[in-house]
Amino acid sequence: QKEHVQQFLATEDALNKAAEAKALSQKLLQRLHGTVDATGNKKLPTGNTSQNVTNSRHLELDVWAKEREVAGLKASLNTLTSEVQRLYKLCAEWKDAEDSLKKKWKKIEEFDARRSELECIYTALLRANMEASAFWEQQPLSARGYASKTIIPACNAVVDMSTNSRDLIERELAAFGQSLENSLCRLPATPQ
């Protein structure tokens, strides 16, 4: 940008010099042709006419050279101006692209933070699931131990009680059967 500014200033300086040279050459041409300058009534001393024509021709050639130089500088200026505009446009596009990338990067960071959060939750749930699985794998052993201490002895006691009750019932039936036979023997043979 510094080079562009320097070139612009050099171009402006050249344009100013060209304008001054053109104005000066026009004044000289007017003096050579004998017209009066607006600032005063002084005339250039007229010398040899062929020398004046040669000087006039030389001045015209200098003016044309300066005009060509000015035209070249104007073309350079136009090229530089269009290049500056292109660079401004490119800078704006890059700024937009940078802003877009920053927004996308922020979304990526937010997503990564959320992913880390969910990963922690997943790890905690997996650990809890494994602990619960180990707990439930131990439950049949615990249930078997509990049953062997409580339910199985109670069932055995019920079996023993039912066996004892059956024996008692059988003895009672046998005793009842005998008492029935004895009482049948005592009954009178004929109705009274």
TrEMBL record:
<dbReference type="InterPro" id="IPR044706">
    <property type="entry name" value="AUG5_plant"/>
</dbReference>
<dbReference type="GO" id="GO:0005876">
    <property type="term" value="C:spindle microtubule"/>
</dbReference>
<dbReference type="GO" id="GO:0070652">
    <property type="term" value="C:HAUS complex"/>
</dbReference>
<dbReference type="GO" id="GO:0051225">
    <property type="term" value="P:spindle assembly"/>
</dbReference>
<dbReference type="InterPro" id="IPR029131">
    <property type="entry name" value="HAUS5"/>
</dbReference>
<dbReference type="Pfam" id="PF14817">
    <property type="entry name" value="HAUS5"/>
</dbReference>
<protein>
    <submittedName>
        <fullName>Uncharacterized protein</fullName>
    </submittedName>
</protein>
